[in-house]
Amino acid sequence: MKIRSLLIIGFSATILALQSCNNSKNSEGKEISTNVAVSATDSRGKKITLPHEAMRVVVLYNALVDDVYMLLAGEKIVGIPQQIYEMEDTYRFLSKLDDRIKNKSIATPTFGGQSSNAESIVGLKPDLVLTFNTDQDNITQIENLGIPVFTFSSLNDEKILEELKNVGKLLGKEKRAEEVTGYVAEEVKKMRASQAASPKKIYYAWSKGRIMSTSGKGSLIDMAITLSGAQNACPVPVEAPNISAETMYKWNPDLIILWNSKLSDVYSLKELEALPAVKNKQVFAMSPSFPYDPHTVKFLLFAKQLRHWCMPEYSQEQLDQDVKKAFEVIYGKKGLI
Predict the structure, then answer these.
(1) Which residues form the signal peptide (predicted)?
(2) Can you give the pTM of this predicted structure?
(3) Are 245 and 211 in contact (CB under 8 A)?
(4) What pLDDT digit, counting tens, does each position of 139-184 carry?
(5) Residue 59 forms beta bridges with which residues?
(6) Which of 107, 152, 180, 325 is the most exposed place for a label (fewest CB within 10 A)?
(7) Domains in the chain, please, with CATH?
(8) Which among 203, 171, 211 has a CA at the least distance from the CA of 276?
């Protein structure tokens, strides 16, 4: 009997040991099953395969941090851009979702700007890094260190939804990704079914007072403007053209939209003071910018804000209700705004 008891104990210990091999801990010390491989294709068309769902994630761009919280996977984040703490509206909102953000305790493996520190990233022991596909030097360096990298492009609405679904697979949040993207896709369909008969022309100005820099046809901003029911005043099929005041008068937009710029950046320009949109006070600032980040599924809210400015029948009250509802769905929590 004694021998039999010892055999049972030994067998049980072996089973427990095997189970422990198939489990790991996330950034908060919670055990997660790791016995199922996951894979997804990123914006480069590259298939990223992990031996189990990602549990320690470093995110190198602000918009992608936002994506992870939308997927209700914020506890997996172990590294973020320094700008998360520096951008007031972003920091304030994400602090409601994660005390680590509020306490500024999540590591920032960056030099400042968009430069990342490979040594710091390695020290965080991530099993996945998220970044944009334009960050090629960092991507190559990180992958050469044996760390999987999933890239985003955020080229348009379809790519944004597709990339959120795919990263959801790697984070073990496939069902959650379907919930968010399903809601956004349905709202997009409704907006496209109710377009204006005579669309207004919108000129979009880049951030930090770069009024003479805009977004051309085929860009992400062009997509959002079109979705709103308006028309991009810039007819040039160039991602980010720089123009002259003479060109602005030629295009003669009905509205000028600013991103992270002040209204005075336009109204103080002598060369634009005779432009009808300026004379008619049709210059609007997307502020605070966080609720309308077009690099995420919030391109939907960017487009709805434009619709309100273009179409008086789409009231401020309706816009506020739509934004509140969208936040409840995409962040999975009520009372955030």
Answers:
(1) 1-17
(2) 0.87
(3) no
(4) 999 999 999 999 999 999 999 999 999 999 999 999 999 999 999 9
(5) 130
(6) 325
(7) 24-189 (3.40.50.1980), 195-331 (3.40.50.1980)
(8) 203
